[in-house]
């Protein structure tokens, strides 16, 4: 997806930083911040629909859990994080947009050891991610290559956390895909099984059922779980299981799910082509209702 034209460090408005709203351009960190050197950083991505943050509780809890997995404690409670998120959205006056909470270790200590660092947290809100926010772009479907990078094993990296360090291979995969004219990359895991896209989970429609990889070494997305709920409500069977790339030819339709992507049909993975399928269309309509319910 193309970047927005406005740089993210030079905007009007406010960012919530360590307990208060500060002018956008003053929400800065020092170059010797531990997180910048050693990836001691976790974050969230949330959507605002009609002025309300969708699944705010789940996202805020995942932020806290991700930090704990990396061994640090966010100095704010779940309720305080929720209130801060709502305060930031309200101050921005945004009805439909994106929320980015982030928590990281500061510059008090340099080196692999980081016990002396302070934990910081910020929340920013914006509404100009055009490619993600336009229904037309979503309906067109996305084309994916297959990445050479594998999602790591759970004892190689903290795969259950939404941790910044895990995105290094996602950015490299996405860039490689874009260089070949694709929109995104499908990532396999350390066993060669299908895992997910670079920022979204994946579902395959096979003979009226949905098949999706078991999230045992990648994020069990909050959108993924919501979509499984919507499919169940429509009596569409969802099967979570290990999936191999050799099965991609069996699918009649494919889509990805994520906070930014919502439900986005996939029209191509490597040499396999797919239509925008009836299950995706149905669930997209159901999802649009759910997020504004
Ligand atoms: N996998 C990755 C790697 C992601 O970055 C995301 C987006 N957070 C997802 C899956 C989907 O997660 P969610 O539905 O919670 O946004």
How would you describe the overall organization of this protein?
It is a single chain. This protein has eight helices and 16 strands. With 293 residues, the protein is α+β, with helices and mostly antiparallel strands. It folds into two domains: 14-126, D-amino Acid Aminotransferase, Chain A, domain 1 (2-Layer Sandwich); 135-291, D-amino Acid Aminotransferase, subunit A, domain 2 (D-amino Acid Aminotransferase, Chain A, domain 2). The strands form two sheets. Strands 8, 9, 10, 11, 12, 13, 14, 15 and 16 form a nine-stranded mixed sheet that branches. Strands 1, 2, 3, 4, 5, 6 and 7 form a seven-stranded antiparallel sheet that branches. β8 (142-151), α6 and β9 form a beta-alpha-beta unit. α2 (56-69) crosses α3 (78-92). The protein starts with 13 loop residues before the first strand and ends with a helix. The protein binds 4'-deoxy-4'-aminopyridoxal-5'-phosphate.
